[in-house]
Structure formats: C-alpha cells, structure tokens
Amino acid sequence: MLELDAVGQAEAVRKGEVSPRELAEAAIARIETYDGEINAVVHRRFERALAEIGALPPDAPFRGVPTLLKDLGWGMAGEPYRAGSRALDGVEAAQDGYGVVGLRRAGFTILGRTNTPEFGTAITTEPRAFGATRNPYDLGYSAGGSSGGSAAAVAAGMVAVAAGSDGGGSIRIPASMCGLVGLKPSRGRVSYGPSMGEAWAGFSVAGMLCRTVRDSAATLDAIAGTMPGDPYGAPAWPRHLAEEVGADPGRLRIGFLTEHPDGTVPVDPEPAAAVRAAAGLLEALGHDVEAGGPGALAEEDFALHFGTVVAVHLAAEVEGIGRRRGKPVDPCELETRNRILGATGRGAGAVEYVASRDWIDGFRRRMAGWWESCDLLLTPSLGVAPFPLGWLPDDDVSMARGRMNRAVAFTSPVNATGQPAISLPLHRTAAGLPVGVQLVAAAGREDLLIRIASQIEAARPFPHTATRRIAARHGNPVRTSRVIS
User: Fold this and answer.
1) Catalytic residue among 142, 165, 170, 186
2) Is the per-residue pLDDT at 50 higher than 60?
C-alpha cells in the first residue's frame, strides 16, 4: 500500500483494504530499512505513533496515513525540536503548532521528524548536528534544502507526503532535486501560531512535499486556515483545493524565463532546457506562451534587502534560543554560515531593517503588476543543475553565498512577494537526476496552480523511480505506478 499516494492510502483505509496500523508498520519498516543510507529521519516516535492510532478521528480524510514533520517550524508538544542545530540540544516543543493540529485533525499518523540544515538557511541538508541527507536518486547528491529530509523521505517511499516549509525555495528546491511536487502556499495560508506570528517577516510559509498534484491540493486543504491573532491571512478559495484537480484551467497567458533578467545570475543548461520543454508542453496544451517575465526581477538590490531581513530574524532567533534555554548561544555552537549571518543581523540597525522591509514592500507591488496581464510565470525551480553533497562548503562562505544566490534566484523573490508557486518534476538529466520547473501565480491563486499542474500531470505523468533504485540496492523489488515513487 505504500505504493499509493496519500489520497490512495486513505481510500484503501476507508475500504478496509488496509488498517491504519498496517500502514504505519509498513512505513516504519521502510524507514528502518532505507534510512540508514539516506539519513532523512532524525527523530523517530514510532511507539508513540502506534499508540495514537486508536484515537484517530474516525471520519478524518487521511485517517491512518503515515507522515513525517520537518524538524523546523512544525513544533509538536513534548517532542524534540532541534532545527538542525546543536544549540537546541535537549529542547522540546511546548505545544503543537497549528499545522500539526491540522494534520492530526486530518487523521495523519506522525512517525517522526526529518532532517534540515541549521535554522533552514541553506539549500542543502547537511547540518553538522545530524549529518547529510542523501538524495535517493544518487546517494552522492544533495536532496536539497531546507526541507531536504522530508523530500528524501517522500522520494524514497518512506511516506507518501511529509511536512516542510519554504523561506527562499525550501519546498520547491528539494522537490526539484528529489523529483516531487512542491507547492509553496500564499503568505498567510497556513498559520504559524500559536507560538509565533510569522517567520522571516512573512517570507517563510509551511507546506507539504508530495508525489502527486492531488496530494498537494488535499494536504493543503487539511492544514490551511487563518487563526485568531495571526498577523494576516490569505484570501479564501471559492471551494476546496482538492476540487480543482482536473478542473479546466482555461486558456492561460504564460510567460517564461530560461535566463534570469538580472544579467549577473547565470542559469545552468539543465534548468533552462527543462523550462523550454515545459513551455512547449504548455503551448501544446493550448495555452498562450511567450518569453518574458516581471521586470522587477532584474533589480539588483533585491538580494541585499532580502538578506538583511533574513539576517536580522536569524539573529533574533538565536537570541531567543539563549533566553529559552537560560544560557546565551555561544557563536561557536553555530555553523560558520549562521555565525556570520547572525553577526550581520546583529550589526544591522533598526532603521536599516525597516528600510529593507519597505523596499521589499515596493518590490512586491512592482512584481504584482506583471500578473495583471499574464496568468502564470514559468521559470526553473532551481537556478543550477542538481549538485553533489559538499557543493555548498561551510568553510568558504563567499563561494557558498555566490552559489546560493544563483540557486535561489527564481524562488526567493516569490517568498518576498508572498505569491504561491509550485515545482513540478518534468525533466531528468542524462544521469537520471530530477530537475523541476516552477509555475508562479498571483497572490492567493493556488487554485489556478492546481488546475494547470493537474493538467500537466495528466498529459505527462511524473516519473518516480527513486524507490526502485533503493530497493534494487537492498535486493527488494518494489512495484511502481504513476502515483508512487
């Protein structure tokens, strides 16, 4: 039954073809068998999860479907919360986040927590605290980040869906690297409460890593919602997002970019080829497709202001950890990247921080104007080709920063604007490594993204072959289909 996507697993439970306990035990067995080489799951709560099955809501839409939580931003009462950092050794979450409440209400069985780079500030999951998460397609390659552990677990078939978050591309980038569907919701779509109002000034949003479009839609239905006290919310959809799967998107106006408008940001050939192929497919499906995108993307000051906001919030987070544990965080406890980023944040004055937020507000308006004449923007999900482990060296911050800026050139602007975006696994390198393409809609229009994504999926079903590769290494063949890994 693990071959099915989450919607399929839930249907099998409702029909009595499998019990929630049997599903959980099968997922646990796969984690125990495969995770030694992948290192996706950093905290296992198997006994607690099995004990909780009897209390699952009987009519919940995902009753008994196993899942995993990213160990960043998905606090779960009484469970470890490490955020990929040694500075949080021994820390437990005080309460369930609203996203976790939504998953519980939907009937998911939560088996554990997944690996993430320290504080989510890298696009590869190689934290010093837990070691590298390896890509199920090639163990020498990164699974991406910062939701790399969740992406690797889904691609490896440990679970059908897993929770993530996205502050600069952290759902879409690992989705691209691991051949998954990665939907970044609109700002305010999923509440970060009750422990916090927003993350990274609203750049970061919670979402799910999935293998199918229908899972992306249905799982976002489960966790979406504005809660009392939230600083803002996203506009309501006309109907449940799951109802948009298979709905006619109409004839859409789609712009596409194979090169970044900022001429200082080169794009590797593989992502560019992926976009050209996707543009051809969209044109064949009857849409109006033309080269071009928002002129605001060419503004060179974006990286400076985005970086200032992130640095200040990281510095504040580290200070908060010190207060929480009753002892200030020694800079030596942090990885080099975050030690420098935190120092930058502490050195930025309040006026500089507000000025950067004001600049981002203007950037958001300048970007939004483009969607008045177009429906969707098509770009690479990742500005570089799939990269091996160690590609972002922690001991060479200058090199790592340059590579990061190239990689997130198409994703981080969408975090700043708060628009929804989805990464779809439409391309493979000659070595069989996945490469995703990104579609960006106007604020609040996840419904349009699900319509077009499901149309694409129907026309060109997404290949999921990582589990076959892993099973072959373990001498345990796994049956595959269009909705499995």
Assistant:
1) 170
2) yes
Q: How many CB atoms lie within 10 A of CB 351?
A: 8
pTM of the model: 0.97
165 is known as an active-site residue: no
Report pLDDT digits (tens) over 433-473: 999 999 999 999 999 999 999 999 999 999 999 988 888 88
CA distance 302 to 290: 25
Catalytically annotated residue among 85, 142, 146, 150 = 146
Taking only the tens place, the pLDDT of each residue in 125-136 is 999 999 999 999
pLDDT in tens, 214-272: 999 999 999 999 999 999 999 999 999 999 999 999 999 999 999 998 887 888 999 99
In the chain, what are the domain boundaries? 6-473
Token couple for 27: 């997922």
Asked if 146 is an active-site residue, the reply is yes
CATH number of 6-473: 3.90.1300.10
70 is catalytic: yes
Question: Among 373, 112, 109, which residue's Cα sits nearest to residue 252?
Answer: 373
Q: Which two tokens stand for residue 180?
A: 């998954």
Residues 6+ apart with CB under 8 A from 33: 474, 476
